[in-house]
Amino acid sequence: MSRLPPLAAIRAFESAGRLENFSRAAEELGMTQAAVSYQVRQLEDRLGRALFVREKGRVRLSETGQRLLPAISTAFASMGDAFAALGNDEADILTISAATTFGGTWLSARIGRFQLRYPDLAVRLSMSNAYVDFDASDVDVAIRIGPGGWPGLRADFLFRSHVTPICAPAFLEANRITAPADLLNVERLAPNDPWWAGWLAEAGVDVKPPPRRGVELDSQLQEASAVQGGYGIALMTPLLWRAELDSGRMVQPFETLYQPGGANWLVYREGRSRVRKIERFREWLREEFEADRPLLPEALWQPLD
Hints:
InterPro entries: LysR-type_TF_proteobact-type, LysR_HTH_N, LysR_subst-bd, WH-like_DNA-bd_sf, WH_DNA-bd_sf. Helix 5 links the parallel strand 3 and strand 4. The radius of gyration is 25 Å and the shape is elongated. The longest helix is centred in the N-terminal third of the chain and has 24 residues, at 63-86. It is an alpha/beta fold. The protein has ten helices and nine strands. It has three domains: 7-87, Arc Repressor Mutant, subunit A; 93-161 and 261-300, Periplasmic binding protein-like II (D-Maltodextrin-Binding Protein, domain 2); 164-247, Periplasmic binding protein-like II (D-Maltodextrin-Binding Protein, domain 2, 3-Layer(aba) Sandwich), CATH 3.40.190. Helix 1 crosses helix 2 and helix 1 crosses helix 3 (33-47). The strands form three sheets. A five-stranded mixed β-sheet has the order 4-3-5-9-6, with helices on one face. A two-stranded antiparallel ribbon has the order 1-2.
């Protein structure tokens, strides 16, 4: 500990470096700008190196500052997690951020079972396709779609991303869709999405779909509404629409599944893996997906390479 510079100076540097602005750092720390500047100067004097390049009324990190900041920011985040574990982490609210389609289908249909199993925990679910900033929110866990490997976060693999054409039964009949190539001549939602070319190739159609005008929606939730209303056919994730497929409200004409890359992950801060509410949600999620395992080819349950 004797080798460490004063904590106040380290804190001032971390805030100023992260924000690249001494005035905003002062506001964040409840100090004056002069005090932040003084602490940073003290740290620079101790290290014998400049941490910032000061030019024309603004500052930016020097090469030394760029090397130092990530480790210091991670250390402060870990300390924050440790203190939070003593109190807030055992609070009775689990806050979940989920990708829009996953949250509005699979998770919304099942989350009540989690709350009934753990009645002492309340659940707050928000849905967005944007990656949540764990440092700037009270989110405990997130369901993300992507490659995994986010710095400072633990990502538990759930299943590989996959899509296949899905439509209403009346649309299938009206357009006499019997072979994958028939989809080249019908209304496709997001017709210029490269995933269509990927799925068609996977299904053995050598013809690349020509560009065309059409309807493009933000999520499968909106696409499902359009499809059930009788408009078009959409690339959707059948695992998330089992109730609609089993009831016959929507149909999956072909078994071919296309993997566009990426996967669904349960994500949370590395230092919070042993927080009770996160442990319980992780265990419950694994149980639910284990029950769904027969619904997909085994390859889709295998982690990404």
